[in-house]
Design goal:
Layout (H helix, E strand, L loop, with lengths): L9 E6 L4 H16 L7 E7 L5 H10 L6 H7 L3 E5 L5 H15 L5 E6 L6 H10 L14 E5 L7 H14 L5 E3 L7 H11 L13 E9 L9 H5 L2 H19 L8 H14 L5 H7 E7 L1 E3 L2 E3 L17 E6 L11 E6 L6 E8 L15 H10 L9 E7 L3 E9 L7 E9 H5 L6 H11 L8 H19 L6 E5 L24
Parallel strand pairs: 1-2, 1-4, 2-3, 4-5, 5-6, 7-12, 8-17
Antiparallel strand pairs: 7-13, 8-11, 9-10, 11-12, 13-14, 14-15, 15-16
Helix pairs in contact: 1-3, 1-14, 5-6, 6-15, 9-10, 9-15, 10-15, 11-15
Bound molecules: 6-O-phosphono-beta-D-glucopyranose.
């Protein structure tokens, strides 16, 4: 018996255990955690699905999709991986499952984490039946035999449905038992937004409307709607799928006030304040300050791809957006008047998730066009980037795939004339630390097992995000208010979006 076997294991019960998320993300993350000796207690993993299958078939299924480098960690976990068939909509089936889970746990009280990787429509009913069957119960979460539930996104479809899901959950569980996932918060570079802002004193004095001209948050993907996902995606769209959660979470971390501590309450109190201060735009503002579009056929990474309307499973007459750009405003003292330009699209030219904080221009332009330089030469040098008249400083925080930070500024070019050229200071995560950032799910599962909800969404945060998105969705529903435009796959989105981004250093084009 190893020392770790002397403490009771933690039981991770994955509902939707035979699904894609479990196979691609959850089990690999658990294998990595277990092989690293985290969380300090052995793991017992139980996949639950409707399909009848025995442990061996489940293990073989998982092994087939395990990345090669992870095989030893997975094999070490295999004896602790189980499968049980059950129907989350049937109380009798869940009662039988509870008896089986108790039997697997043995005599000792085990902590139990139920992960709902289910169809979103099932979340509310599933939580109620988990409680009714005794698989979870309300309890003191400090105890070894904790009961927690992780709920995947999307949490609701709009404010009303998110509220009623929160109500359903709170009827049977305490808030501290509920872990609503936004996997972006598990990304190292997203967490580093807090580190950068609050471990370094130089940023705070300039991190406000007096010094910041505008902030851009971009989540651009090259993938389209993946196989089998059109059914979900077409009823969801880019605003609900990525902006309501990932983009607004990044915005909250960029804009929040310093928390008194990095713990779940302090951090989420500050995030919810930002989200509440996001001004829900009225329909005229939505028309002026938002763009929605969907991709047509085009070329991505050298391959011809079809347009959204021709993807398998997209219904005829669909008007779902795959691109959204919004000029958002935060009504509080720190950010009043500073536009937050939010943008997300599928089938874009390049995969990039980043934040750009653009600072105000110097009040006086001391360094000007070099004396005697012809217009043609001036234009040539400006285009070539060897000369800049005056440019704002921009702090670029690369979330993925180029994880790093870059601060741009101007420096004097060598020579007898006072000519400024662009330069930058950079930090590259992989180069600096010699490793790639860890997978988001690994961190989030570890935290959920430990009962730390700092990187999970609280009920009020989700509702505040929906309140903002609902205002946009309502205006979009008005016929003709914000027409759906098109962009070719492999581009940077519709031309109409450029106007929204006036004032951005380099504009959208600098990404091509
Ligand atoms: C998911 C969305 O939440 O995030 C997907 O449903 C999107 O549509 C994905 O592709 C992006 O995640 P990542 O980690 O690949 O940026």
């Amino acid at each position: 018996m190893t020392p770790r076997d002397t403490v009771p294991p933690v039981q991770i019960v994955i509902f939707g255990g035979s699904g894609d998320l479990a196979r691609r993300k959850l089990v690999p993350a658990l294998a990595r955690l277990a092989s690293a000796g985290r969380p300090g207690r052995a793991l017992q993993v139980v996949g639950v699905g409707r399909r009848a299958m025995d442990d061996d078939a489940f293990r073989a299924d998982l092994r087939a999709s395990m990345p090669a480098g992870l095989a030893p960690a997975f094999d070490a976990l295999v004896p602790r991986i189980h499968y049980r068939g059950a129907d989350v909509e049937s109380i009798a089936s869940l009662e039988a499952l509870r008896r089986e889970l108790d039997a697997l746990a043995g005599e000792r009280p085990v902590g139990r984490l139920c992960y709902l990787a289910l169809r979103p429509g099932l979340f509310g009913a599933a939580v109620a039946l988990l409680r009714a069957s005794g698989i979870v119960h309300r309890h003191d979460h400090e105890g070894a035999a904790f009961r927690r539930v992780v709920i995947e996104k999307p949490f609701g479809h709009d404010l009303a449905s998110a509220r009623s899901l929160n109500d359903a959950v709170h009827q049977v569980l305490d808030e501290h038992q509920v872990f609503r996932i936004d996997h972006y918060l598990g990304k190292e570079t997203v967490q580093n937004l807090l580190g950068l802002r609050f471990h370094n004193a130089i940023f705070e004095p300039v991190w406000n409307r007096h010094h910041v001209e505008l902030v851009q948050v971009t989540v651009a993907e090259t993938i389209g709607v993946e196989r089998g996902r059109a059914g979900y995606y077409d009823g969801t769209g880019a605003l609900r799928d990525v902006v309501q959660n990932h983009v607004l979470q990044i915005l909250a971390l960029v804009a929040l006030e310093p928390p008194v501590a990095i713990d779940a309450d302090a951090l989420r109190n500050q995030k919810v304040e930002v989200l509440r201060a996001l001004r829900p735009p009225d329909p005229d503002e939505v028309a002026r300050h938002s763009v929605r579009a969907r991709y047509g056929a085009g070329v991505v990474d050298g391959a011809r791809v079809r347009g959204y309307a021709d993807e398998d499973g997209v219904p005829d007459g669909s008007s779902t957006e795959t691109y959204v750009a919004v000029r958002a405003e935060i009504d509080n003292w720190r950010w009043q008047g500073v536009p937050f330009l939010l943008r997300h699209g599928k089938r874009m030219a390049r995969r990039v998730t980043e934040v750009k904080v653009q600072f105000r221009m110097p009040p006086v332009q001391l360094f000007n066009r070099p004396e005697g330089m012809s217009d043609a030469e001036l234009q040539r040098q400006l285009r070539g980037g060897t000369l800049c008249l005056v440019r704002p400083n921009v702090l670029t925080i690369g979330i993925q795939p180029d994880e790093g930070i870059e601060l741009s500024f101007g420096v004097k070019r060598p020579g007898p004339e006072m000519v400024m050229a662009p330069a930058s200071l950079g930090f590259d995560y992989r180069e600096h630390f010699g490793v790639a950032p860890a997978d988001a799910y690994e961190r989030l599962l570890q935290d959920a097992i430990a009962g730390d909800a700092s990187l999970f969404l609280r009920a009020d945060e989700i509702e505040a995000s929906w309140r903002y998105c609902d205002a946009i969705l309502a205006a979009w529903r008005e016929p003709g208010r914000v027409p759906l435009s098109d962009y070719p796959a492999g581009s940077w989105g519709p031309a109409g979006a450029d106007a929204l981004f006036y004032g951005c250093e380099g504009g959208w084009a600098n990404r091509a």
